[in-house]
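Open question from group meeting: does this chain pack into something compact, or does most of it stay loose? Before anyone orders reagents, we agreed to write out a predicted structure and look at it together. Recording both the input and the output here so the notebook holds the full record.
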Amino acid sequence: MSFKPPRIKEKYFITDGDIEQLITLLEKEALIVPVHTDVKNAIPDDPSDEIFLACAVDAAADFIVSGDRHLLELSEYKDISIVTVHEFEEKLARSL
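Structure tokens returned:
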């Protein structure tokens, strides 16, 4: 695969091989969720983030794991917890 987003490489200090493995994993395992839920005005400061809320609702997700400030400020949406990667790792570790 030739798609290698430089922003991801620089931000997370990962190799081209890591990116290719992640893309392959996503291609094989990702669940495509058609979005039908209307969440307009849920995030007035950044409406472009609302697609993540709609997708999580339609997927019946338990969590949204994000580093996005606008999403994290909500902390929860329709019983879906919005957490950082670190918080999610902690929750996973406690559940083992």
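Observations to bring back to the group:
Residues 31-95 form one domain.
Residues 51 and 61 are 14 Å apart (CA to CA).
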